[in-house]
Amino acid sequence: MNTLTIDIRKAEPRDADAIAEVHHEAWRGAYSGIIPHRALTTMINRRGGEWWANAIRRAATVLVIEIGGKIAGYATLGRNRARELKQQGEIYELYLRPECQGIGLGSRLFAAARQRLADHGLKGMVVWALEENDNALAFYSGAGGRDIAEGVEVFDHKALKKVAFVWE
Ligand SMILES: CC(C)(COP(=O)(O)OP(=O)(O)OC[C@H]1O[C@@H](n2cnc3c(N)ncnc32)[C@H](O)[C@@H]1OP(=O)(O)O)[C@@H](O)C(=O)NCCC(=O)NCCS
User: Fold this and answer.
1) What is the Å distance from ligand 1's center to 139 Cα?
2) What is the DSSP string of 82-132?
3) pLDDT tens-digit readout, 19-74
4) Could you tell me if residue 18 is inside a domain?
5) What is the 141 CA–ligand 1 centroid distance (Å)?
6) What CATH number should be reported for the domain holding residue 18?
7) Which of 139, 140, 153, 160 should be mutated for ligand 1, with most atoms under 8 A from CB?
8) Angle at the Cα of 77 from the Cα atoms of 71 and 78, rounded to 5 degrees
9) CA gap 28, 21 in Å, rounded
10) Which domain holds residue 61?
11) How many domains does the chain have?
12) 138: three-class secondary structure by DSSP
């Protein structure tokens, strides 16, 4: 029997191309039919390997989850950006390759991201998800998040509602 090891660690610049690939596949999978095609393509194209290498080198914290040595997903995290919410930490993004979803990896990455924010001394955490992203809403409420705020994000003139989940 083969055993696949699962590892969660900080991303390094050499991971940039793999993360760009995960970003591309996960965003297409999650947002096709929700975010207008042109806006989605522009957002995906903007974030190639070089963009990610820069993000990793700069202050942003990028975590990756590897399974059997292959990057299956990533999370980005840091200080909460919404002044009206008192929680100090935020997971900005958490995405898995479509073929790696639904087998518990997202839960592990989520727990590691939350722990890392706590290790940085940030109290409480926020995650925003588009309201039409049913999987994300189920995932975050299943993980104990309380949805307490709404916002709007505009993509190519299409306004989409987003929901903030918080953990104390
Ligand atoms: C949302 C996402 C991060 C969840 O990670 P995951 O590894 O697929 O989820 P897990 O296997 O750890 O499942 C944890 C829980 O989430 C919920 N969940 C996950 N996928 C779900 C789905 N497709 N439908 C309904 N609930 C789902 C379940 O409640 C599950 O609980 P269970 O273990 O009791 O069944 C991942 O599916 C993903 O990357 N999706 C596409 C991108 C995305 O929407 N990211 C979030 C943007 S804000």
Assistant:
1) 5
2) -TTS---EEEEEEEE-GGGTTSSHHHHHHHHHHHHHHHTT--SEEEEEETT
3) 999 999 999 999 999 999 999 999 999 999 999 999 999 877 999 999 999 999 99
4) yes
5) 10
6) 3.40.630.30
7) 139
8) 155
9) 11
10) 6-167
11) 1
12) helix
Paired residues of 164 in beta bridges: 128, 149
Is the predicted pLDDT of residue 2 greater than 80, yes or no? no
Residue with token string 């965003």:
27
pLDDT level of residue 1 (50, 70, 90 thresholds): low
Count of other CB atoms within 10 angstroms of residue 85: 17
- Residue labelled with tokens 């929901």: 163
Q: Quick check: is 1 in a domain?
A: no
Contacts with 161 (C-beta within 8 Å, 6 or more apart), sequence order = 130, 131, 132, 150, 151, 152
